[in-house]
Amino acid sequence: MRMINRHPGRVSATLLGLLPFLLIMLIYSLASQERLADNPNDKLLPGLEQMTAAVDRMAFQEDRRSGDYLMWQDTTASLERLGLGIGIAALLALVVGILNGVLPLIRSNLAPLVSALSMVPPLAILPILFIVFGLGELSKVMLIVIGTAPIMMRDVAQRVRELPGEQLIKIQTLGANSWQVITRMALPQVLPRLIDAVRLSLGPAWLFLIAAEAIASTEGLGYRIFLVRRYLAMDVILPYVIWITILAIVIDQCLRFTNRRLFPWYNAGGH
Amino acid sequence: MSFITVRNLWKEYGDQVVLENLNLNVKQGEFCTLVGASGCGKSTFLKMLLGQESASRGELLLEGEAFPEEPDRNRGIVFQRYSVFPHLTVRQNVLMGLELEQKPWLGKLFGAARREALDKVDAMLESVGLGHSADKWPHELSGGMQQRLAIAQSLIMRPRVLLLDEPFGALDPGIRSDMHDLLLKLWQETGTTIFMVTHDLKEGFYLGTRLLVFDKVRNDPHDPQAFGATITYDLPITQTNENLFDDINNSVNQTARHQAA
To answer: For the ABC transporter domain, which residue ranges apply (chain B) (predicted)?
Structure first.
């Protein structure tokens, strides 16, 4: 039988999926054990024991200096920035994207600008943001907005234009004015697609968040990682990276679930 | 004065002539079927009736007035596909037109007005045979059911003209004849003027009161786009017979081969 026609069963598919994870953990723990056997104070490849101790110290004990639980403080600070940034970007994308998609006059007016903006490398204008908005929360949120909004705007506009032309004619024959075409046809059909666009933009959003926090911040997941790098504290960095990954997966799956619950027609092939 | 008047109508795209010198008078309540080979301008003519395309030359009048240049609520349309809204249930799809008409800003009805509108909607769904599917999503319906829904959605607006662009082209033959019966029934009940484009000459002969054949009279083998199509036969349906059917069929097929060559 050809390889392209061989499909794994349910159990073997799960096992095949788990295998790379187990393999990485195995290789890591072997390498870590070897280094620790040589030098029990090795910092580069901390073992499970050191990492749990670090997590316990960061997440479940008050910081001796500030009295805060650092990991939770970092998490809420980062998630706030991420949520605010992505939220504003999604809202902008929805408004500009729909107007661009539905109204030819606005499209001629705004689409070239949006295309040009989406080509600007956001990190290159980070210094401008720091200068204009200061080193506070605003510049970090703005980086996420500027980094993700233009691409989502283009995506939403594209999704609107992909709606069948027959629908647009049909709703006009039902007497709809331009406003009604937007609110009853374009907006409801584009919302689930917007959620998909947000899911895709979360990757870049995390990138911009951590970059901004690394450069100028006093709390946040990215700030902490770059802070403890000075002490080669891999026992903190690795759990933080895993924690960020888990957060990203959870947010992504929540959005996917929301999309399914809110828009049953969208995921059942109704588009 | 006739209901729809077409006088010396031409449609050209640059050098390409699609329709030449169309003349036609249609009375209110007629059911015209438009047949012809692909590329002979039947769909273009339908789009002009809809307001999606405008004439290059000549007149297209509705009760003596020029047709509006964009689609409006007086002219309903059913396409071969994609005529219904996937994000609305069957009932919401039909309700939409009434809501758009009564609420220009909100686009939604509430309370008593909504209940009243829903009564109309349910009666309409019943008459197209979708009464039991009112709460389904369009993607849960078969192709034939979706077309029933599209027809109901248009007819609830009581349009003065109903335009059908190969509405049954994608359906199985058995379903198609059910749809013919439904369409004739609705046409008799509402008295709407209907224009239907079809590929199927038999369909044209069987349905409607009047058959319009779009065909090219002149053909330049070196430049197939040089001449447009016009109406070559305009027949009341009672006059149809076997020989005539064969005549038209041959002529249409010949044009189709020219187009393809």
So the answer is: 4-241
Q: What pLDDT, in 10s, does the model give residues B16-44?
A: 888 888 899 999 999 999 988 887 888 89
Q: Using H for helix, E for strand and C for coil, what is the string for A188-247? A: HHHHHHHHHHHHHHHHHHHHHHHHHHHHCCCCCHHHHHHHHHHHCCHHHHHHHHHHHHHH
Measured in degrees and rounded to the nearest 5, phi and psi for residue A68 equal -100, 160
pTM of the predicted protein model: 0.88
Disruptive mutation site among A172, A174, A263 for chain B (greatest number of B CBs within 10 Å):
A174
CA distance B147 to B143: 6
Residue of B87, B156, B192 to mutate when probing chain A, most A C-beta within 10 A: B87
**Contact in structure between A210 and A144 (CB atoms under 8 Å):** no
Of A184, A189, A268, the CB nearest to B139: A268
**Total structural domains within chain B:** 2
Kind and range of the H or E run holding B62: strand B57-62
Domain boundary among B118, B139, B158: B158
Tokens 């605010």 belong to A84
Contact B142, B172 (CB under 8 A): no
For domain A70-264, the CATH superfamily is MetI-like (1.10.3720.10)
